Amino acid sequence: MAAVNFDRQFVYIGTGWEGSAADMRILKCACERGGFTVPDGKYYLVDSGYANTQKFISPYRGLKYHLSEFGPKAHRNYTGPEEMFNHRHAQLRNTVERTFGIWKKRFPILKNMKSFSFDVQADIVMACAIIHNYIARFHLTDAYLHVDVDSEEEAYGITQSVDENIFEEMISVGDSNKGALLRTQIKNEMWLMRVTTLNL
């Protein structure tokens, strides 16, 4: 599991989990035992594999979400505020996908580590994240950070299955009722701004 900022740097990375581990289980462990915290009044954008809470805002399910589903700007019409929220959410969360694309292009070893033991694989991931952050902070002319990089994650047709039962055990990751209120507030404010702008 990883969290990134808008400067395409890792702010948290958790290694040592099998690929089949549920996203929410990993997040819960990161919050309870892994030192991952969300500053008061802030939140992270997450994909639909996670529950929506006041700390982790996910998109609305069952509506368009991936950028490729929205088409070009000139032909974009939203069916309602939830769909517009999902589009804006995907635009912002794309920073994560681009960061992973840069990271994998910079460190090809991340794509093929089967010959290493599981522990060594976890160490390689952490080392690559640390080096990536160092380059991003101190080598501002780095070519990888200043070009558009396609990543495997940007194949927007990928969906994740979600175990709804795990949402009931989320004390450390936030409250789903507060998350629903926050997401609704953000959605309504964005929709009002859009409607106001279109009526000018």
From TrEMBL:
Primary localization class, coarse: nucleus
Any Gene Ontology CC annotation: nucleus
Location of the protein in the cell: Nucleus
GO molecular function per UniProt: hydrolase activity; metal ion binding; nuclease activity
Keywords assigned by UniProt, alphabetized: Hydrolase, Metal-binding, Nuclease, Nucleus
Source taxon at top rank: Eukaryota
Cofactor(s) this protein requires: a divalent metal cation
DDE Tnp4 domain sequence ranges: 2-133
Similarity section: Belongs to the HARBI1 family.
UniProt cross-references to PANTHER family, sorted A to Z: OS08G0106900 PROTEIN, PTHR22930
Protein name from the UniProt record: DDE Tnp4 domain-containing protein
Organism: Apostasia shenzhenica
